[in-house]
Amino acid sequence: MKQPDSIPKAPVSEAEAGVSARQPIDFDLQEQLRQRFNPEGSMLRRQQLRMLELLLEVDRICRKHHISYWLSSGTLIGAARHGGFIPWDDDLDIEMMLPDYCRLMAILPQELPNTMALQIHQTDPSYFFCYAKVRDRRSILNEGNNYDRVWREQGIYIDIFPMEKQRLWVHKLSEATIGHMYKVWRTSTDDRKALRTVQRIFNLNVRWLHPVYRGLNRLLGGHIITSGLGIPYHNPRLEADIFPLSTLSFEGYDLPVPHNYDHHLRLIYGDYMQLPDLNRISSHVSRLEFL
User: Fold this and answer.
1) Mean pLDDT over the full length of the chain
2) Cα 66 vs. chain centroid, distance in angstroms?
3) Please, what's the b/e burial string for 106-136 (b: 16 or more CB within 10 A of its CB; e: otherwise)?
4) C or N terminus of the chain, fewer CB within 10 Å?
5) Is the pTM value of this prediction over 0.70?
6) What is Dmax (Cα atoms) for the chain?
7) Structural element, H or E, at residue 71
8) Residue in 70, 73, 9 with CA at minimum distance from that of residue 242
9) What confidence tens digit (pLDDT) does each residue in 116-169 have?
10) Considering only CA atoms, which of 134, 138, 113 is closest in space to residue 123?
11) How far is CA 62 from CA 69, 157, 198, in A?
12) Which residues contact 166 (CB under 8 A, 6 or more apart)?
């Protein structure tokens, strides 16, 4: 995995990062978008730079332990289309194969600085997603869906998704069996009672059902890469598009991406180079405070 020899822990400013040489959209349009959505010093830009700091720390740890990951979803679109964050984007996603994910989960609690925290069920028992977050402890962020209302860690975060080779119908089955958990929490009028139900459903899936599903995938021969079991996203990825990993410039840093990222993104999103309706952009964040 080709990566920089040295990556500082602190994020760079937009001015220091400059504009990626591989930026495919018009320079003037890019500047107009940044001035409209994330000008230097704005709350969104400060959030993006804090997410970048989290990413670079995870990148440092992954390089140290020879763990492969790649930029994904809107973060990858941002790298390919904007040379960094999509100007209005307020989250950051990376993916890695499940064995690497399991290694990283064991390493992160010992390797992260005190200003950051790993958030998985084992470190935050009220957290019930089947993927991890790395959280900033110098901020408070609440999302509009309110899923995070009782979680121990509530700072700015990045998402880390485990990926598995699966039969798509097996993955969809895992979504169905864990979907009730989300419904219980989303419609709760008694969080203490709902949390007990959520934790029972989570444990049933992770301890019992997911091993059965993984056995089915091994038996049947999982042939596509998609999000790990229990994660409610199942857009397929092709191994030939992802590996061997390449790099793109993201906010001035060369970071890992699928080597055929164009086909990878088109398979998931279609024409990802086309900008959305800019008047319909919405935020995930309902509250953000820097401490």
Assistant:
1) 90
2) 19
3) ebbeebbeeebbbbbbebbebbbbbbbbbbb
4) C
5) yes
6) 54
7) strand 70-71
8) 70
9) 999 999 999 999 999 999 999 999 999 888 899 999 999 999 999 999 999 999
10) 134
11) 8, 17, 32
12) 217, 222, 224, 225, 226, 229
